[in-house]
Specification:
Elements: E1 8-12, H1 17-28, E2 32-37, H2 40-52, E3 56-61, H3 67-81, E4 86-89, H4 105-130, E5 137-141, H5 155-175, E6 181-187, H6 193-198, H7 202-211, H8 220-231, E7 242-245
Helix pairs in contact: 1-8, 3-4, 4-5
Bound molecules: NADP nicotinamide-adenine-dinucleotide phosphate (NAP).
């Protein structure tokens, strides 16, 4: 059974990694996809793959820090497909990393802009359209870093992603009475270009795997399946949740 039949979904960060896997999975489940990211060629390749598999999708390239882009994604969803049911605000960056005294104000602000302000801009323009859906689902990609554990050198990333979780809770309370569900998804280490930029040597890969209770990192498709749950009516009573899908990083002590 198609779990997203007749639904329309915006997915950002769809040119790579988790967003790309989610776009493909959502499309196989019947959703019509509006795929966003900056790289047009990667998005075009994704759209081609979805269409070959019988799905419906289109790509709009842009920068999630740009409010006009957030507005355009919604206008394209409603203008082309007539509705918006799901918004998966997933685009993100590790941003400014390293010893906090060495982080520049510009690096800090860029990280917050790409990860947190983008989530606000997405939500701001998506919510009015999502409220017209019978079963709207608004999802943000956050992380376990800064939620259940701290990690050195990641203060800007953690702050930006923890900010998403705080905003998510308020949005869930604000729009729950109108039936909109709002959640965030907290992946563990995942085999994507971002994940690989941390696990960038055999030693670092072993270290990152060892952080997880399952002693491995995730495939992007495993995170996409959790996003599918939150997007679908299977999660009809799930809102306001920061959902850990992190292979046991947060409970691991070995
Ligand atoms: P990824 O493969 O590097 O993908 C990141 C995506 O975000 C790309 O599609 C990129 O597209 C897009 N993006 C970045 N900055 C953007 C901007 N300013 N405007 C528009 N799009 C932008 O990484 P990923 O692992 O799939 O990351 C997806 C999400 O998961 C992120 O929010 C990340 O923080 C989170 N996460 C990842 C891990 C992990 O271990 N991989 C763990 C926890 C959480 P363009 O470059 O084409 O713009």
């Amino acid at each position: 059974m198609d779990r997203l039949e007749n639904k329309v979904a915006i997915i950002t960060g769809a040119s790579s990694g988790i967003g790309r896997a989610a776009a493909k999975l959502f499309a196989t489940q019947g959703a019509k996809i509006i795929a966003g990211a900056r790289r047009q060629a990667e998005l075009d390749q994704l759209i081609e793959e979805i269409r070959v598999e019988g799905g419906q999708a289109l790509a709009i390239a842009g920068d999630v820090t740009d409010e006009t882009y957030a507005k355009t994604l919604v206008e394209v969803a409603t203008g082309t497909y007539g509705r918006l049911d799901i918004a998966f605000n997933n685009a993100g960056t590790l941003g400014a990393m390293g010893d906090t005294p060495d982080i520049t104000l510009e690096g800090w602000q860029d990280t917050l802009s790409t990860n947190l302000t983008s989530a606000f801009l997405g939500a701001k323009h998506q919510i009015p359209a999502l409220l017209k859906s019978d079963n709207g689902s608004l999802i943000f990609t956050s992380t376990f870093v800064g939620h259940t554990i701290g990690m050195p050198g990641m203060a800007a990333y953690a702050a930006s992603k923890a900010g998403i979780n705080g905003m998510m809770q308020c949005l869930a309370a604000e729009f729950g009475p109108q039936g909109l569900r709002v959640n965030s998804l907290l992946p563990g280490g995942t085999d994507t270009p971002m994940g690989r930029s941390v696990a960038n040597s055999p030693e670092m890969e072993d270290f990152v795997k060892g952080l997880h209770g399952l002693k491995r990192i995730a495939e992007p498709e495993e995170i996409a399946k959790a996003a599918l749950f939150l997007a679908s009516d299977d999660a009809s009573f799930v809102t306001g949740t920061a959902m850990l899908v992190e292979g046991g990083v947060s409970i691991n002590k070995t």
